[in-house]
Amino acid sequence: MPRLVYRKLDVTFEPSQHKFVRVVEAYATGVFRDSFHTAADLLPKVAGKIRELESGPSPLAFAKVAQSPALHWTLEEGTGGLQTAGVTTLLELHVLPLDSAGYSARELEALGQSLPGRVRATGMVEDDIPLSSSRSQGHMAVSVPASRPRSWDTPRPGQLIEVRLYKTGQLSTRALLPQDSMGPILDPNALPKQIAELLKFTGALDIIRQDRIVVAAGVSEPAMTSIDTFDPRQSRRTARLAGFGRSFALRTEPDESVTLAALQAGAEEVAEHLARALIAHHPSAP
User: Fold this and answer.
1) DSSP letters along 181-248, please?
2) Residue-wise pLDDT tens digits, 158-203
3) Coil vs helix vs strand at 239
4) What radius of gyration do the chain's Cα atoms show?
5) CB 91 within 8 A of CB 199
6) pLDDT of 151
7) pTM, whole model, 2 decimals?
8) At what angle do helices 190-204 and 105-122 cross, to 10 degrees?
């Protein structure tokens, strides 16, 4: 069945006498159906649907949680066997469905086996990049090797490096922050975009389907980060590592649950909140 990609939309042509087309968002779960006769007829309809989705009201709904959820944090684990090209500071994002019984050993095994294919299907990782699977008693994981820069001072944008599915139902991602020769950067503009992308990626894995979830984010080895603007064209010459030599944690503590829309149309709104909270807790925050 032929497919094409159009602005984060995965278009599947379904054979029928009416030439129906189904369009599925690559980073969400929405679907729309319409008829067409030619490509010139199809493309405006796809563009119109994108505009409709972007201009619609936020479907998010927040609710206070009675007690702090039990999240698995990896901030103290380091990079382990991950191929991070020497980088040790990582952004991690956790999504835990509420009122979930978690997975049995059999269910976790089955989902773990499907995880590499699910990662590929999102379009987040190119087909020629190798994926590595691993397991422990409590989770299944897929890791993505970090791309190596042309030289030591070449700026690098953020990049997904690991996906973990826990027996509890928690789904976590870890990623490199944008960085240059002066180290990882907490960019007030780039950070919410990166978190939103990870949220949509998590939704596109099509594992979490419960209506209410909690979301949290953190940064490992935060003392190596600085609040600054990431420039993909050139490295900075100076950086203010206000936390260097100091011990502090950089993570959010969720006190609210949110609807599943946080992994779809509401990802940008949730990401803005998480990014602001992380930056506000940094010692060099204004």
Assistant:
1) TTEEEE-TTHHHHHHHHHHHHHHHTT----SEEEEEEEESSGGG-EE----TT---S----TTTT---
2) 999 999 999 999 999 999 999 999 999 999 999 999 999 999 999 9
3) coil
4) 20
5) no
6) 77
7) 0.80
8) 120
Chain center to CA of 138: 21
Q: Bridge partners of 213?
A: 97, 258
Residue type for position 24: V
CA distance 94 to 71: 8
| Rounded CA separation 183/249 (Å) | 18
Taking CA atoms, 217 is separated from 118, 207, 267, in Å, by 22, 19, 13
CA angle 93, 80, 117 (to 5 degrees): 60
**Alpha helix locations (H) across the chain?**
39-55, 105-122, 190-204, 267-280
35 strand-pairing partners: 20
Looking at residue 21, its pLDDT comes to 45
One-letter amino acid of 55: S
Contacting residues for 278 by C-beta, under 8 A, at least 6 apart: 186, 191, 217, 218, 219, 250, 251, 252
- Dmax over CA atoms of the chain, in Å, equals 68
Number of H helices, E strands in the chain: 4, 15
CB 48 within 8 A of CB 257: no
Residue at token pair 């490199």: 176
